[in-house]
Every structure is written in structure tokens, then in C-alpha cells.
Amino acid sequence: MQNPPPNQQGYGYGNQYGTPPNAPLTTPPPGGTGKSSTGLDANIAALLSYIFGFISGLIFFLIEKESRFVRFHAMQSILLNAGVIVAYVAITILIIFVSFISSTLASLIGLLSLLLMLAFFAAAIICIVKAFQGEMFKLPVIGDIAANITNK
């Protein structure tokens, strides 16, 4: 393998010997590093915004003034938990109406609602882990909405 010309700039060509083999090609995003205005590390504050659901998300969204990372995760927590509440109410109403037609069908919808709630719980766990790792992890629809709100 030949060495690149000395004036060529790009990944791995920062010095004449290149970069070490395990060096990242890009710098990590500034997301969850550093302190937030709450005095906590940004990744810890983002993690805590998911722990108590809607309430902790709202608290961190309102008190955080500097860290977009924390504000994003707090807003994503608020929207995720609002989605859980809306889905739960809608499924409950659906079960009530369907139970007049067929109790078996209502039971089936109840089982499907349990799977939906488990999916919301899994999404919250994934968000907690990603926030702790300092990643700007966006849920499919909710993440884009949270990013738009926090970038205003």
C-alpha cells in the first residue's frame, strides 16, 4: 500500500503517519458530554428525564436552559408518555365499545394493548440507555417532533 501525497487532507491523513488504527473517523457529537445547567452531567439529566415519565420530562424541559441534548430527551420523554396516555385511553374506549359486540374480541384487543404497552416500555428503556450513552437517539416520529420543538 502506498502512502498518500503529503498535501492530501482527509480521514487518517492528519500527519505523515496517518491516525492510529482504532481512532474514530469523526469526532463524537457534543451531545451528552459536559454539564447541564441543572448541575448534573448532561447524560444523567437526560436519563432522569425518562425515569418518572411525563413529570420528570416536564421538569427537566422547564429547568434546563443550556443543553439542547437534555432538552431534546426531556421533550421526547414528554411526547412518548403523552403517546402512551392517548393510546391507553383510545384502547380502553375501544374495548368498552367492542365488549358490547363480543367479549372474545374485546379480550383479543386487550392482549394487543398489552403488547403495545410493552412496546412503549421497550422504547423508554432504549431511550434511557441511549441517553446515558450520550447519544441523540430519535424515536421514529416522536424524535423529529421533539427535535423541532427544542431547536426553536
Describe the protein's architecture and organization.
The structure is a single chain. The chain is built from five helices and no strands. With 152 residues, it is mainly alpha-helical. It has one domain (42-150). α1 runs antiparallel to α2 (54-63) and α1 (42-51) packs antiparallel against α4. It is elongated. The N and C termini lie far apart (49 Å). The relative contact order is 0.13.
What's the quick description here?
This protein has 152 residues and is an all-alpha fold. It contains five helices and no strands.
Descriptive terms for the model:
152 residues, mainly alpha, 5 helices, 0% strand, elongated
Order of helices and strands: HHHHH
| Mean pLDDT metric | 83
Number of domains: 1
> How many helical elements?
5
Any low-confidence stretches, pLDDT <50, length ≥5? 8-16, 25-29
Instruction: Using the CA coordinates, give the radius of gyration.
Output: 22 Å
Helix proportion range: 55-70%
Overall, the morphology is elongated
Find the structural class using helix and strand composition.
mainly alpha
Please describe the biggest sheet, giving its number of strands, its sense, and whether it closes into a barrel. none
What is the β-strand count? 0
How far is the first residue's CA from the last residue's CA?
49 Å
Approximate strand percentage: under 5%
